[in-house]
Amino acid sequence: MTAQGADAEPSDTEPERVDIITRTFQFLAGGGEMGALMRAHDWTRSPLGPPERWPDALKMAVSICLNSRFPMLIWWGPDFVMLYNDAYRPILGMTKHPASLGRPGRVIWPETWSITGPQLDSIWQGEATWSHDVLLPLDRNNYLEEAYFTYSYSPIKHADGRIGGVFTAVTETTERVLGERRLRILRELASQTAEARTVEHASRRIMDVLGANNPDIPVALLYLVDEERSVLQVAGACGVPAEKYPAEVGFDDDDPWCVARAIRAAEPVLLDYLPFRFGSLTGTVWPEPVKRALVLPVPRLGVAGAVCGAVVVGINPRRALDDDYRGFLELVAGHVATAMSNARATEEERRRTDELVRLEARFRDLADSAPVMIWLSDPGGLCTWFNRPWLVFTGRGLEDELGEGWLAGVHPDDRSRCAAVYRSALDQREPFRVEFRLRRHDGEWCQVDDTGVPHYAADGAFLGFIGSCVDVSGARRFEAALRKSREDLLRLNETLETRVAERTEDIAAANRQLLAQIEEREQVEATLRQMQRLDAVGQLTSGVAHDFNNLLTVILGNASYLEKLWAEADDPKLMRRITHIRIAAERGAKLIAQLLAFSRRQRLEPCALDLNETVGKMHELLATTMGGGIELETVLAPTPWAALVDPTQLELVVLNLAINARDAMQVGGRLTVRTANVVRGDPQRPEQPAAGEYVELAVVDTGTGMADEVLAKAFEPFFTTKTVGKGSGLGLSQVLGFAKQSGGGVAIETVAGQGTTVRVFFPRAPVTDEADASASPDAPAGAAASACVLVVDDDDDVRHITASMLEGLGHRVVEAGSGGAALERLAARDDIDIALIDFAMPGMSGLDLAREARMRRPALPIVFITGYADSTVLAGVRHEHILRKPFLDVDLDRRIRATLANTRAGSLDALMSTPR
Predict the structure, then answer these.
(1) What span, in angstroms and rounded, lies between the C-alpha atoms of 86 and 35?
(2) Which among 375, 369, 428 has a CA at the least distance from the CA of 403?
(3) Which of 52, 99, 529, 681 has the largest count of CB atoms under 10 Å?
(4) What is the pLDDT of residues 27-85, one digit of tens each?
(5) Alpha-carbon distances, residue 411 vs 392, 415, 476 (angstroms)
(6) How far apart are CA 888 and CA 884, in angstroms?
(7) Single pTM value for the model
(8) Chain center to CA of 466
């Protein structure tokens, strides 16, 4: 896209006009390329008008902007018209310059307006803003790009203080942010694998780092060489389901991830078109699927030319694979190689150490097999060894206990006494026995009975003491417990009657609480069963809608064809039968639409709506529907909030409720339609809305009202109290489905014999600036008389009847029964003007086919045909690119001609609706 007049060739008088502007308006002088573009630009088509009429504040800001070497941007007026200098131009990329000059900001930056728009709006309050390293997804190089910026918004004021626009100084910090993020990943890899003791442990740590929501590594696979079996074994995966990669790959295999190929060639392999190889791999950071991956061999350090495996890393769908990105991924592979080398070295060292430990353990087991704690001391009284039971009991290491270190575990109150007994026995060289409190490994003080005897050598030399300790805490506790039990028994006899009475009261209180909980649970379970029953019916209706709409498409198409074929026939009876077939099919289509409304699977186009205006427009229709015997009254809120609701469905809701009220009043009465602003609290029933602000539409009648058993089933599909043929039982179900899908709910107030009030709540629309209106493409002028249409549908009957309709309308048709066949037709034929694609197909879906077709034919117009409603992806497709089943030939022709006349850009993003 280009701005109007921005790229036009200058006329013969253009240099003279530019020279006049330069002499007259010095604020446009200089400025490099952007100064020249501003001077040559046709400003009469811009909201700013001719430069001579620009306010002084704007002229001064433009002069500063053009002559600055720092990236600067001016947003002027309520439309935020863009003016910028040469330093800002690279930020616009290859798709937005020079189209941005003199154009409204929300038109140029729709992908970032949800972020920058509110900030710009705040400037009108005189509040300057500053943002640091903000993520702004930009569509400036034909893909949605991850970019970061530091910028400030400052108000530009007129001489009288009014704010006329916004001055922006901006610096793109993408490279720094990406560099710091990637450096953190490399540091994390190094730190997390530094302590890994095994290859398996190192692999887990590597995958933990790579799979920790890294935008630059959305998915990853790690394969390691199993030298004993001469295969590649998967060692970890993140973001890739197990069924999408082989657990084992031979060196000569042609595996889908090209791991063996990368190892054989000893160089990286770039994989494209991952969605067509493995399906959608989205990772955890970006909503877009990963389309490319890089397979990097992992060298084996210390062995020239050898590899220890390969790592597969997915490419960030919002970044290009440039030299910096590739270099970062190669550093990741290098860290993996270092971690594997260190882990293998640690395993070898541990194997040698374990062998020594096993030899020492055999010796220690002989001394550690005793059932008591044993210690030894030297002649000077310093302890030289403790057996395993002692160390286990204290929870301390041998080094901590040696010498007089063991005294640290003795209770402070017993330490001096214990040391005195020990010293006396050492001086007298005679046996001793002492009890003291020793701290166990869990921190508890235990009573220990320690006995020591002097130890002599064969020649009679004194070697020190040998001692043994026994934990007698259990015996001491038993003795204390026995004494306490006797005392407690005496006290219990005295207070038994009081405790029995207190316990009885506690049990009674607990019983009352339990009964209340049971009653509350029964109410919750009843509500849950009702919600589950409605949801089950909703899922059933949504599931069968696709097949029913396919059948109705075939029936309606053939009925219309027969009506045209026999239009000139002299057999009115046959024409009536054909017409009856068509009318019955149309009624079936309407019934499917009602079912989808109940199941909340219909596609809605909500907008901010004034309910007073809608009710006012429907007054004449309601009066006609009610008839002369019913008095119609409207009670409208004086200043209603705007409701966020689909206007077409809203009118059906009002009409549905009015017809129900009319039937309930039977012979005259009064119907009141009321609007109000309400604030709701927590819901008491499943059909009621959640807490919040709503706009209420109430329909009040003076009819027969509802009994309790009727009210309990009022929202169930196909439930009706009317006679056979008078109603389908879907009216209130459809109202509830639409209200819930819109984000609101329904409440019924009724009194038998007096009347009923049905209150429908719609969410309050957020207060925003009026959005730019876009022209509807449904009725284009001057569309081509004939086109070559590619029809893709896996249902043969639907595809054939669609082709017949197109041929009857004068179009040429190319048929395909699957996505693969459609791509072959596109490759073989250059004359295809438009593709008509079934959205729900097995294998390659309609949206997948559209993406691939646009990669091959970027400007190919596409229309989706669908009878399926429950699709979150379909909700993002623009309505002008959707044709609902069942359809007639006039609907088909109108949609095709409208799409062919649509001149918007051909990227796949043009199919998607602007987020609300």
Answers:
(1) 8
(2) 375
(3) 99
(4) 888 888 888 888 988 888 888 888 888 998 999 999 899 988 999 999 999 989 999 99
(5) 18, 6, 17
(6) 10
(7) 0.41
(8) 70
